[in-house]
């Protein structure tokens, strides 16, 4: 495997397009492997720098006194969920992932963090859409002390057009209704989202945390939105 070429480990076609797990050599030449996830036919993330996926969990856990029950929207490569599990105050994590193939690959342990998360005794992975779960209309049912959402790039730059509804004012209100008193709703975005910040702020006190990441010679600014109803 050379540095630039990624090999497909497994792939499937879903109603939203291709989903695939790929691996490539780590650019540091150590011989270790970087995993990549493709969803809806486009590169979604890799395991090279997962600092913002981890920060989503850390920033929300830091603000929540008793995060016993946690909902994670979007399994991805499992890094947010793995960080949640490092906090021993967390008793149970429900992960909702729309791509049933990815849930299956996680159960088979086809990427290391995915396997750790899917087999963990405090985790239940559910194949399904997070939108009805946030509306209280589908299993698993809340409330949760933490609701962590990383299902798309953010409302201004969607991968799945169908995810637009998750960021609507009605859906955000519904999501906040799933959060226990003293809990936190935290949303990851691939760029600052002023309209999302404004919409959340009309519902409850909201903080924006900006995170700078160096990637391929460029500085990228990611954002977290933390709302405490
Ligand atoms: C960028 S990845 C999440 C990364 C994750 N935070 C991590 O640490 O690896 C986004 C995930 O959300 C899933 N997803 C997209 N739309 C969804 C929806 N409406 N409901 C549930 N999962 C969804 C995608 O299939 C993908 O697995």
Under CATH, the homologous superfamily of the largest domain reads Vaccinia Virus protein VP39
Hey, roughly how much beta strand do the residues contain?
Answer: 35-45%
Strand order of the largest sheet: 7-6-5-8-9-11-10
Q: Which class do the helix and strand fractions yield?
A: alpha/beta
Tell the overall outline.
Answer: globular
Descriptive account of the structure:
By secondary structure, the chain is an alpha/beta fold. The protein has 2 domains: 40 residues; 177 residues, Rossmann fold. The protein is built from 7 helices and 11 strands. The strands form 2 sheets. The chain has a 7-stranded mixed sheet with strand order 7-6-5-8-9-11-10. A hairpin with a 2-residue loop joins strand 10 and strand 11. Helix 1 packs parallel to helix 2, helix 2 crosses helix 4 and helix 3 packs across helix 4. The mean pLDDT is 96. The site of S-adenosylmethionine has 25 residues, from strand 4, helix 2, strand 6 and helix 5.
